[in-house]
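Example 5.3 — Glycoside hydrolase family 43 protein
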Amino acid sequence: MQQKKQIKIGLLSCLFAFTLLSSCQAMRADERKEPIGKVVGQPLYSNFKYTGNDAFYSENPIVPGQFYSTILQGCYPDPSITRKGDDYYLVASSFVMFPGVPIFHSKDMVNWKQIGHVLNRESQLQVGTAGISEGVYAPDIMYNPNNDTFYMITTQFASGIGNMVVKTKDPKANNWSDPIKLQFDGIDPALFFDDNGKAYVVHNDAPDKGKEQYTGHRVIKIWEYDVATDQVIQGTSKIIVDGGVDLSKQPIWIEAPHIYKKNGQYYLMCAEGGTGGNHSEVIFSSSHPMGPYTPAKNNPILSQRHLPADRPNKVDWAGHADLVQTADGEWYGVFLAVRPNEKNRVNTGRETFVLPVDWSGEWPIFKGGMEPLKALVHTPKGIETSKDKSSFFPNGNFTFTDPLNEKVLDERWIALRGPREKFIVNEKNELTIKPFDVHINEKKPISALFYRQQHLAFAAEVEMDYTPDSEKDFAGITCFQSEKFNYVLGVTKSENAYYMRLERCENGVTKVLAQQKINRSGKMKLRVSASGDDYTFSYALAGHDYQNLGGTVSGDILSTDVAGGFTGAMIGLYATSAYATPVEK
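Solution (predicted structure tokens):
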């Protein structure tokens, strides 16, 4: 009995000693400010910094009375704009980005602030297995003064939704309705609300069956729209443009229609020529919204396709426009265009530009729209360019910093195919990514946060604290054009060693460009920089300087000219538990 009592006392003493030791270790860890609750295989990210420095802007500094024509740099294509009183709202395409359809607000057409996303719930956006350039195309935002309601109509190429509309009384509240599926085919729908209370939808579609004359032959259709049921009125559809301005010249891809009313006349503006080098904007008019429509003799009213290819600081592909009238009666047009690099590659994607519009005559004319597009345009009457851009969406050359320590992410961070909140944790001044068992090259939601590349010359860096647990674990930074075209710099583990690797994925085939065995994992910095087509990837272990890995690599696979599709390159913070490339010893 005495022996059992001694054993029991000994066990209690060991338990007390172990508890005391654990407590001391926790105190020492707290004193060293080590992350509490850090999980092996889950990277902690902090202190993201992006700096852009393009000649397009450095050679054209802001002067009083002017502002930059690129109001949204990076992949913000297919812009649409509307106004209620002194409030302007602008949206852009988002494809499989989640949340979708970024929405911006301005009081002056010059200084813009992102106020959220129109499609911010899974019930609105169902793109979980879609390719990068599928999903949501060409949103149109329109305010209806007849019922004081905002509408966003678009095409969602996923889950069988197709053409759809959502609406809200207050865009700032981020409470848009769930999608209402619309009963017509085609793409690029837009609403028009006449001052007599009637409503219409115009959109791109294929010609009637058996009447397609050539590849790219499309038509513009119009329907009457029932505001009470939010549906087109069946039996009212009519083709109002066949092919484009002049069918005999076989124009291609007439699309992105918008109707405006001025002085009792109706104007139909469309994109023509496709969203590449032949892009343009054309205009028609009619005495009735249902047509017939007559094209202007001076079409196109906006294009860069006819200009010398070797012009300096080239802006190209201009088209897909929308018009808005200011409270003072001036007109402006927003549209997409690209700024290619020295090899004519398009890595920043299709950006949103603005130009003043002269509508003093019969037809609207983009001021300078047929000349080489300039960096600066004149501000509306009485508006000054804000010197304090901290509360507005920046443009020109700028630095964006994010410590990644807030409970709510900056709206510029997006995920692909699913909510960010399913794989991130924001606490203790750092952002944790909980990796999915999904590789970056899959058409599934991936555990990665993305920030759009907004300059041809940029540097982006981030701090990462990460210890992979196995060869299936991998985390780092990516330059991403699509699931088939991307670069990834990151850390993995093989046996008891850690490796830094740079990979290039081209057309779905991944190759390791370089790898370096590192002494330990843990805290490090990762950086990617670009000068035009030249990209470099570097890392710095704690207490050490940056070390390049892989030399200088081409940004070719980050260009839409090579990768295809409609998006621009993005910089991502990425982790996975489904890494599949063996380490070569």
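Remark. Helices lie at 2-31, 55-58, 560-563.
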